[in-house]
Amino acid sequence: MEGINLKGKVITVDAMHTQQETARYLVEEKGADYLFTVKDNQKSLRKDIEDLKMVAFPPQHQTTEKGHGRIETRQIWSSSELNEYIDFPYVGQVFCVRREFEYVKSGKKTEEIAYGITSLSKEKADPARLLQLNRGHWGIENSLNYVRDVTFNEDRSQIRTKNAPKVMSSLRNLVIGIFRILGKN
After folding, report:
1. How far is CA 19 from CA 15, 39, 51, 173, in A?
2. Domain ranges, ordered by start, for the chain
3. Most buried by CB count within 10 Å: which residue of 22, 63, 78, 110?
4. From the CA atom positions of the chain, what is the Rg in Å?
5. Is 51 exposed, middle or buried (0-12, 13-18, 19+ CB in 10 A)?
């Protein structure tokens, strides 16, 4: 991220990058805020957020969307109660997102719960904004993975030696970027 101006931006990352060093770097060096997913690679942090039992209360914000043959409801709860307790730099609040999916044709319902942490205070980001940022991260992630998997058939690539995989990945990224600039998503 060197050389990229991130001042005033909110950076969202997968759980793999939910690290204290990353949080410090983004806030101190880049002047950015973070919104991180918390999974089992941060077990005690995840447990601390889970122990708030936020889902026992009515959600602070909810959205419902229909598309791709399903109805998806997202609910969010956020809290700053752990800010003085947890050992994570620049924490502004923690949050819990519940996603419920109902598949229209089959009627099958599924649910998943995700946890997160952000440097954004409640004044900078209310629950609706946090849910929007969280949703935006997965929209980008899913669209990029879809293009890589379906359009470029990346998983079937036979290029696996030396620097060739990195070179091909860079070329794919370049092509994806050019198509997006041209509005050919």
Report:
1. 8, 11, 20, 25
2. 10-151
3. 78
4. 19
5. exposed
Local structure of 60: helix, strand or coil: coil
Name the one residue in this structure whose structure tokens are 């370049």.
174
- The per-residue pLDDT for range 109-134, each reduced to its tens digit, is 999 999 999 999 999 999 999 999 98
Total Cβ atoms within 10 A of residue 166: 10
Q: Any alpha helices (H) in 31-183, and if so which ranges?
A: 43-50, 127-146, 164-181
pTM for the complete prediction?
0.73
Quote the CA–CA distance of 133 and 32 in Å, as a whole number: 14
